[in-house]
Amino acid sequence: MTSLVREHLNGTAATIQKVLADETILSTVAAAAEATAASMLKGGKLLVAGNGGSAADAQHLVAEFVCRLVHDRAAMRAVALTVDSSNLTAIGNDLGFDRLFSRQIEALGATGDVFFGISTSGNSPNILAAIDEAKKRGMITVGFTGKDGGRMVGLCDFTVIIPSSITAHIQECHLALEHVFCAMTERCYFEGLKQS
């Protein structure tokens, strides 16, 4: 059994090493964080969504913004679109699962806000519809995906594609980069507040 543990962790480490060697991924995460901080400094908010494990990522990321990641600081405006069971079941039942997140963006999103969509395949219809709705509203769009990027490629202002076809490794790298994204956004935001 320990060999299986080692094999999985070696796969995770190898994927992280590929991410570390990809300057496009690193610069995209940094640019997305800077854009998110700039949005928040103007009163904007972060809306985050995903399905399954990526839904858990959305909630995890938002908790880091609202509560804190490392340092004690003021709360930052972020909302997970994956947590309101009444909205999720009403929209899914009445309008269809594909509109689960786009309908909430229609209600909550405003020009200059940020939508962060997570889809390991890049093909989740409800995430693609949410990106489309966010763009219609003049929001900044961030997409985290994997494999070949799927249909998400070219749709977002900032797209991070994890170079793996293994869902677990994609999600593990997503979580690591989501922590980096939060920490960098936090730093840019609070440095911006000090300068203003």
UniProtKB/TrEMBL annotation:
<dbReference type="GO" id="GO:0005975">
    <property type="term" value="P:carbohydrate metabolic process"/>
</dbReference>
<keyword id="KW-0479">Metal-binding</keyword>
<dbReference type="InterPro" id="IPR001347">
    <property type="entry name" value="SIS_dom"/>
</dbReference>
<comment type="similarity">
    <text>Belongs to the SIS family. GmhA subfamily.</text>
</comment>
<keyword id="KW-0963">Cytoplasm</keyword>
<feature type="binding site">
    <location>
        <position position="64"/>
    </location>
    <ligand>
        <name>Zn(2+)</name>
    </ligand>
</feature>
<dbReference type="GO" id="GO:0008270">
    <property type="term" value="F:zinc ion binding"/>
</dbReference>
<keyword id="KW-0413">Isomerase</keyword>
<dbReference type="InterPro" id="IPR050099">
    <property type="entry name" value="SIS_GmhA/DiaA_subfam"/>
</dbReference>
<comment type="function">
    <text>Catalyzes the isomerization of sedoheptulose 7-phosphate in D-glycero-D-manno-heptose 7-phosphate.</text>
</comment>
<protein>
    <recommendedName>
        <fullName>Phosphoheptose isomerase</fullName>
        <ecNumber>5.3.1.28</ecNumber>
    </recommendedName>
</protein>
<feature type="binding site">
    <location>
        <position position="179"/>
    </location>
    <ligand>
        <name>Zn(2+)</name>
    </ligand>
</feature>
<dbReference type="InterPro" id="IPR035461">
    <property type="entry name" value="GmhA/DiaA"/>
</dbReference>
<dbReference type="GO" id="GO:0008968">
    <property type="term" value="F:D-sedoheptulose 7-phosphate isomerase activity"/>
</dbReference>
<feature type="binding site">
    <location>
        <position position="171"/>
    </location>
    <ligand>
        <name>Zn(2+)</name>
    </ligand>
</feature>
<feature type="binding site">
    <location>
        <position position="171"/>
    </location>
    <ligand>
        <name>substrate</name>
    </ligand>
</feature>
<dbReference type="InterPro" id="IPR046348">
    <property type="entry name" value="SIS_dom_sf"/>
</dbReference>
<keyword id="KW-0119">Carbohydrate metabolism</keyword>
<feature type="binding site">
    <location>
        <position position="60"/>
    </location>
    <ligand>
        <name>Zn(2+)</name>
    </ligand>
</feature>
<feature type="binding site">
    <location>
        <position position="64"/>
    </location>
    <ligand>
        <name>substrate</name>
    </ligand>
</feature>
<dbReference type="GO" id="GO:2001061">
    <property type="term" value="P:D-glycero-D-manno-heptose 7-phosphate biosynthetic process"/>
</dbReference>
<feature type="binding site">
    <location>
        <begin position="93"/>
        <end position="94"/>
    </location>
    <ligand>
        <name>substrate</name>
    </ligand>
</feature>
<dbReference type="InterPro" id="IPR004515">
    <property type="entry name" value="Phosphoheptose_Isoase"/>
</dbReference>
<comment type="pathway">
    <text>Carbohydrate biosynthesis; D-glycero-D-manno-heptose 7-phosphate biosynthesis; D-glycero-alpha-D-manno-heptose 7-phosphate and D-glycero-beta-D-manno-heptose 7-phosphate from sedoheptulose 7-phosphate: step 1/1.</text>
</comment>
<dbReference type="GO" id="GO:0097367">
    <property type="term" value="F:carbohydrate derivative binding"/>
</dbReference>
<feature type="binding site">
    <location>
        <begin position="119"/>
        <end position="121"/>
    </location>
    <ligand>
        <name>substrate</name>
    </ligand>
</feature>
<feature type="domain" description="SIS">
    <location>
        <begin position="36"/>
        <end position="191"/>
    </location>
</feature>
<dbReference type="GO" id="GO:0005737">
    <property type="term" value="C:cytoplasm"/>
</dbReference>
<feature type="binding site">
    <location>
        <begin position="51"/>
        <end position="53"/>
    </location>
    <ligand>
        <name>substrate</name>
    </ligand>
</feature>
<dbReference type="Pfam" id="PF13580">
    <property type="entry name" value="SIS_2"/>
</dbReference>
<keyword id="KW-0862">Zinc</keyword>
<feature type="binding site">
    <location>
        <position position="124"/>
    </location>
    <ligand>
        <name>substrate</name>
    </ligand>
</feature>
